Amino acid sequence: MSSCSWPGRNLTMQQYHDNEWCVPSHDDAYIFEMLTLEGAQSGLSWSIVLAKREGYQKAFQHFNIEYCSKLTDEELETIKEQYNIIKNRTKINAVRSNALAVINIQKEFGSFSTFLWNYVDDHPVINNWVSEGQMPAQSPLSEQISKDLKKRGFKFVGPVIIYSFMQAIGMVDDHLRTCPYHSTNR
């Protein structure tokens, strides 16, 4: 069996691929972390973001949604200056606005997970790609979720970001069919 090639020889990328990518998660803090990291990636490579993941975890108290929702402008500026994260102010401010939007969804649906997983009737979309070139950058479902999240006040949630996010939290399994980590091979 041949694994997905996108992690290359980067150990951090390989570990992410093997242990997290396309693995279903229903943990709101983890889901919020992935939404934040995918948004931070916009315009950058995933390896850069993963290299800064620990900085993000420290800066945002392991993506404690309540904590993130209450951050002041001054605290966000301090985070920008003192932590090893992407220094884009708009992306950093999105952590707070997205946390507030998540809290509103939690009040309405019970959890962010429930809201998101309703889009796939609680079952991941399992694709059977034979080459990485077959994987789309976005899908009609990522377009719909993106539109719905934007209406709810989320930032950095375009359809391409959301497709990657869906992979990150396991709503979509895009491991190659020949990859030992594909759902049917586990």
UniProtKB/TrEMBL annotation:
The record's keywords, sorted A to Z, are:
Metal-binding, Zinc
Q: Which GO terms describe its molecular function?
A: DNA-3-methyladenine glycosylase activity; metal ion binding
Q: Does the keyword Lyase apply?
A: no
| Residues engaged in binding Zn(2+) | 4, 17, 175, 179
Q: Does the keyword Zinc apply?
A: yes
InterPro entries assigned to the protein according to its UniProt record, in alphabetical order: Adenine_glyco, DNA-3mA_glycosylase, DNA_glycosylase
Some GO term, biological process aspect, for this entry: which one? base-excision repair
What name goes with this protein?
DNA-3-methyladenine glycosylase I
